[in-house]
Write a structure and sequence with these properties.
The chain has 26 helices and eight strands. By secondary structure, the chain is mainly α. The chain has a three-stranded antiparallel sheet. Its cofactor is FAD.
Length: about 675
């Protein structure tokens, strides 16, 4: 993206966005003339004689069990249904409304039409109107209007060396059109249905207009085929209505969402939002080169397909929705209620930890059980090392924090603010670290398969970073040091464990990075000689799953330390007296058990629910995962539960994205 001076506003990359898109969904992203597309489609038709041109529809009539279409040249065609895919100014839609208003007054809202590949470069110039136009007030622009707009922007810089005027003077064709956008409430009436722009007009900023038409057509085919399998001899009025209603039911909310997303994207790129003049350039500078593809990829992966025909086998990193193990749960209430319960529980737990309060009533069997589970579970009770178990609980929290803060999709949210989080963790003390991490993860962590990856150098540095930054100082603080000054010094150093973990981890990752750079050869291909699909391996590393093994190893080590820590402490000491250095630096809250158990349980159960709601696991798997989490909590405490659920989640999400080979 370039600014008015022709300079780039964000980081640039030699990799074509089409390369990223093909790696993600298996297909490249291309611009193509509508005429070219029509030619390709026509060339592949088996019955070309059924394509009739110069047959603009002027009138539609419903007859007994059939529908008739009258054309401008006087021809009349009769069939089972009429599908209007004739654009935003749809004649079929106008006729459908006319018939609906005549035969079923009130069926259509009264105010929907009232004011209220070649060697080519495809380009767009967007210009805002002073006010929003609706319905019949939307203008049809002339060539004179286009020339006036061109004159106003003739000297605008596209790059430092190219102006808009130079681009326009070399055009093959151009047109000036209003960017209409709308989703009509009703798409069909009896045997008449509209699809594409005639039903849902999307701003071209997201490039989803034509895609949306094909998606609606696929749904229409699926619905009709389903009904025809039930009645091969022909469909009744009610069956037709059922099929056309199905298209609307499955497509309407998605169409509305796409229109809203395209509108938001258009507002951003045209800087039509509050304070745009001041914050647009700093905001855009934070975007990665593939930011636009990050927006488009999930839109494409939610699309439907025609059932019953074979799908081409194309490697792709991001799964399509119909490839997921289960159907995603998209109901707003079903998605929000668990989120509110989880964040509410964690918010109360964090408040209790910060204020040294008891979050429960202090009585009851459930309260006692949770308190014991939070203090190391059955393992902590058996070996009698509850304080050591509490310290071990922080290992998966620190590992998880460093992992989440390094994920590709978290680069612009607070989880990536490692230094800030280090200071917060140090200030709030060990009592509050676990609930704070759990709450932050639910609020900010990425849920996308493409945003899951971590830089392999960082992933391989997390285990040694946590061992050096937290485990080593903790072991030193557990030693029976008799000298009070030394003991105080060790306790003070231990208190800085969040910062130490971050420094060691990022330092080791930087060393690995320098070693990797020395071992790589500089590309001998100059920019002008690179192929159009050129991509340096470093940019495509995200599609290799190279980080999965070290990330699973991090979670596995965290789980092992939660299990082994209390046992080892029991073997070398029979009391908790050796915690004096740590206790002086940061005394543990007497209610840490119930706080940790409640926080870990809310975090883990929500993680299980989230995997199911996204369709990443089946319901049975989610239930078993939730039960297993509770079992691990009772056996070894909240730290082990968090490590276990994080390991499982890493495995589940990464397994949805198969490795793709580097070119």
């Amino acid at each position: 993206m370039y600014g008015p001076d022709g300079l780039p506003l964000a980081a640039t990359s030699p990799t074509s966005l089409s390369v990223h898109f093909e790696k993600r969904v298996g297909y490249p992203s291309i611009f193509i003339d509508r005429q070219m597309l029509l030619q390709v489609l026509y060339k592949n038709l088996n019955h070309k004689d059924r394509v009739l041109t110069k047959k603009r529809v002027t009138r539609v009539e419903l007859v007994e069990g059939r529908v008739q279409a009258y054309t401008q040249n006087g021809s009349v065609y009769e069939g089972d249904i009429v599908v209007g895919a004739d654009g935003i100014h749809s004649a079929v839609r106008d006729e459908m409304w006319r018939l609906g208003n005549e035969q079923s007054p009130g069926y259509f809202p009264e105010d929907e039409n009232s004011p209220a590949p070649g060697d080519r470069t495809y380009w767009f110039l967007f210009d805002g109107l002073p006010e929003t136009k609706r319905g019949k007030d939307i203008s049809n622009y002339t060539k004179a209007d286009e020339e006036g707009l061109v004159k106003a922007h003739h000297g605008d810089h596209i790059t430092q060396d190219v102006t808009f005027g130079e681009l326009y003077d070399r055009k093959i064709m151009s047109t000036l059109v209003p960017l209409e956008e709308y989703v009509f409430d009703r798409w069909h009436y009896k045997r008449i249905v509209t699809i594409g722009d005639s039903a849902h007009k999307i701003d071209p900023a997201s490039g989803q207009g034509g895609n949306g038409a094909m998606e609606s057509a696929a749904l229409l085919v699926n619905a009709l085929v389903r009904q025809l399998k039930l009645s091969p001899e022909g469909l009744s009025d009610s069956q037709i209505d059922s099929a056309l209603s199905e298209v609307h039911a499955l497509r309407y909310e998605r169409a509305k969402r796409l229109v809203e997303q395209a509108n938001s994207l258009q507002m951003m790129i045209s800087q039509r939002f509050p304070l745009a003049r001041f914050i647009f350039k700093p905001l855009v500078s934070l975007f990665v080169p593939s930011a636009f593809i990050d927006i488009i990829t999930p839109i494409c992966c939610e699309a439907t397909r025609i059932q019953g025909i074979p799908i081409p086998k194309r490697p792709h990193f991001v799964p399509f929705e119909d490839e997921l193990p289960a159907k995603p749960i998209k109901g707003c209430l079903a998605r929000r209620v668990p989120w509110v319960l989880a964040t509410g529980t964690l918010g109360l737990s964090l408040f209790a930890a910060l204020n040294n309060k008891d979050p429960g009533s202090g009585t009851g069997v459930l309260y006692s059980i949770l308190k014991q589970w939070g203090a190391g579970g059955l393992l902590g009770k058996v070996v009698g090392q509850t304080s050591v178990a509490g310290l071990a609980n922080l290992v998966p929290v620190l590992s998880g924090w460093l992992i989440e803060g390094s994920r590709r999709g978290n680069s612009l949210n607070p989880l990536s603010w490692t230094t800030v989080y280090s200071l917060i963790y140090s200030l709030i003390g060990p009592n509050s670290v676990l609930p704070f991490f759990c709450l932050s993860s639910i609020l900010f962590s990425t849920k996308s398969t493409i945003h899951r990856p971590v830089d392999p150098k960082m992933a391989k540095s997390i285990v040694p970073g946590v061992l050096l930054g937290y485990v080593a100082p903790t072991v030193a603080a557990l030693l029976p040091i008799k000298d009070a000054k030394v003991r105080h010094y060790v306790g003070t150093v231990w208190q800085a464990y969040p910062l130490l973990c971050a420094v060691f981890t990022r330092g080791l990752a930087a060393v690995r990075g320098k070693t990797t750079i020395r071992g790589q050869q500089k590309p001998d291909t100059k920019a002008k000689d690179r192929p159009i699909n050129y991509a340096p391996p470093s940019e495509l590393q995200v599609y290799t799953n190279e980080d999965v093994t070290p990330l699973k190893f991090s979670h596995g080590i965290a789980l092992a330390l939660c299990l082994a820590g209390p046992v080892i402490a029991k073997a070398v000491s029979t009391t908790d007296g050796m915690l004096s250095a740590i206790s002086q630096a940061a005394p543990f809250n007497q209610n840490i058990g119930i706080i940790s158990a409640a926080s870990g349980l809310a975090y883990s159960l929500y993680a299980v629910w989230e995997l199911r709601s996204l369709g990443f696991v089946r319901t049975k798997q989610a239930v078993l995962g939730g039960l297993a989490s509770v079992g691990v909590l009772g056996l070894a405490g909240p730290g082990a539960m968090i490590a276990g659920i994080d390991y499982w989640r890493e495995h589940v999400i990464s397994s949805l994205s198969p490795d793709t080979e580097l070119p």
